[in-house]
Design goal:
four-stranded antiparallel sheet; 10% helix
């Protein structure tokens, strides 16, 4: 069972970012960005964008290739 696998994993608290104002997530399919993904396993977005906006106004944006189409 999948839940048993998660129970056996070691757990440790980690701070990965401080002073965050917001975190954004969006998905690219073709030429269209979406703010949510329906979660269907038979299709994947082409890209996932993760954006962190910090209190000083700095922004960190990461793009992840997911679908690997082509």
């Amino acid at each position: 069972q999948a839940s048993d696998v998660y129970k056996r994993q070691p757990y440790a608290d980690r701070v990965i970012a401080e002073d965050l104002d917001s975190v954004g997530l969006r998905f690219l399919t073709g030429t269209s960005w979406q703010l949510d993904w329906p979660g269907q396993s038979d299709t994947l977005p082409d890209l996932v964008e993760l954006t962190f906006v910090f209190g000083e106004g700095d922004e960190l944006r990461q793009l992840f290739l997911v679908g690997g189409a082509g």
